[in-house]
Give the backbone structure.
Amino acid sequence: LDGESDQTGYIYVLDLRTGELKMKKDVSEIDSLLSGKSVFMASPITIDLELDYQVDIAYIGLSWKENSAWAGEIIRLETGEDTNPDNWKFSTFIRFDEPVTSAPTAALDPFDRLWIFWGTGRYFSDDDKTDTSEQKLYGAWDPRTDDDNDGITDPIYVSSLNDVTNVYVYEQGY
């Protein structure tokens, strides 16, 4: 096995009570860059911001091979607490030049800003065992803005992130 996909990625939404398929969405409908690409999907994470047992937002990592190198993206899904998936908003959260093969995680800071954390890399094939390419850990605040007022939340860009590799955090003088 080479750890690659030979088909596009889909997001499936099921009614957990009945098992009925509510939506099958091709990821290329969310990001046209993915059209015709063979996509490998990671596990999603869902977030209930108000702690009212309603999912507000979800993030899903995905990867694809671009020529001979891997690339990745995280998709954002905003439900608006609407049970009808036809009313949900799908958008690209961030795209970069490394694969994302596991679920991101999330946290709220003291100012109620939503932060998403994820790592890059893969370990699925024999080639992955000897891959020495640099992989990264990311953390990014999702401001969930729509600056162009098109009804779709804007992506963030790797170029807007700060490299904090050499930043030291001290707590109580240590």
Observations:
- The two ends are 47 Å apart (CA to CA).
- The first strand starts at residue 10 and ends at 14.
